[in-house]
Design goal:
Layout: H1 3-21, E1 25-30, E2 35-40, E3 46-51, H2 55-60, H3 67-83, E4 90-92, H4 101-111
Parallel strand pairs: 1-4
Antiparallel strand pairs: 1-2, 2-3
Helix pairs in contact: 3-4
Length: 116
């Protein structure tokens, strides 16, 4: 089993538990250059999305693959979600370690008013 398969196995287990709870999930994905976040409803529809490729986010950060850029994405997605009237979400880290950019995004979203 390689790194990707192991990560996807962890993600599958987490998503199964979140599906049981039937709450909206804040799903993230990271690549070496960018970080992406989406709010996915229990029926599978994506309602809000943000990434380091968005024009609004790009203005705030030069490079999309660092902790500062992840914090900007976290604040941006949290603002979109709160505008929709949702405050409680489940955090789906997609099998990535809760460290570095993933932690930065989650902390910024919490500071902006989201509850995990």
């Amino acid at each position: 089993m390689n790194k990707t398969q192991t990560r996807l196995r962890r993600a599958k287990r987490t998503r199964a538990k979140i599906k049981e709870l039937s709450v909206p999930r804040l799903s993230i994905h990271r690549t070496p250059r960018n970080i992406y976040a989406q709010l996915i409803m229990p029926d599978g529809k994506v309602i809000a999305a943000s990434s380091t490729l968005n024009a609004e986010v790009k203005k705030s950060c030069k490079y999309g693959g660092n902790v500062a850029a992840a914090a900007v994405v976290g604040k941006h997605i949290a603002g979109q979600i709160i505008k929709l009237g949702i405050t409680k979400v489940a955090f789906d880290r997609s099998g990535f370690k809760y460290h570095g950019r993933v932690k930065s995004l989650a902390d910024a979203a919490r500071e902006s008013g989201l509850e995990f």
